[in-house]
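pasting for ref
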Amino acid sequence: MSLRAPIISAIFFGLVLSFDSIGGEYSARTERDAVLDKVVAAGVDRDWAAAVLDDATRQQSILDAISRPAEKTKPWFEYRKIFLTDKRARAGVAFAAEHAATLANVSAQTGVPGSVITAIIGVETYYGRITGSYRVVDALATLAFDYPRRSPFFTGELENFLILAYESGRDPLALKGSYAGAMGYGQFMPSSYRAYARDYDGDGVADIWASPDDAIASVANYFVRHGWQPGGAVVVPANNDGAPVTLFEGGLKPRHSVGELAEQGFAPKVATDITLMATPLQLEGVHGPEYWLCLENFYVITRYNHSAMYALSVWQLSQEIEALANANG
């Protein structure tokens, strides 16, 4: 059953009412009614939204997957092997070459390096090859209604998904994504799509599912809106000479200058502006602890995925892509 919207016709409402009479596994949940109230207030037709939710199916595999993300189960030296491979770097060079004009233009407009945009897409979906096989409505409904720990977040994403599908006319039952409901080349959550997705190719649609150009522009806009500093450093290796353990507490947002951290025993290995704000990071490497000073642009990458290991993987992959492209001339 396709539910493209908005479609206001007797046939459409006949389909909705016929389907609604069948009822889905979430049709009797009070949380569903709260979602409907919220999206109706945003202008979505209630019968249309109810039909979409009634088609949603609980997926146990989604609940299993979200309970064991790689960032929480693997040390850094294992986690990086997932993304930092020669094969992925070479695929990144090929993707960058194929979309060189778009990457160059978007980078010039935004200040976000094309290699970083490419690396994001490479880490998220292997350059668009693996974008997810779950229906987005199933993923978001399962997590909104059956994953209490993060139900408020995914309920909000479910509401955003219904609104974006209704406003764009896309079929909400056909859109697929990750087990968490992330979509397209750059794996945007529905709220991110509504806030940051951009139409680059001028067809009037921000198509992050099928248009690499739109996806590239959307990823860059996400970075810009989160404070990317053009030309700014991202992360530098550091030495730890007895820095207090409490220095590593407090989250990913930079709270100390490089100079202040150096005075406490956590100093950069290479020449770095001591006035820059940074976060000290310790990760488990193959040969023992690795130490890093994570600067403001590193923090911006973590806004895409709130994991230091994710951000460092993106950055290191971007550097490998650049080096390999330069080596190939």
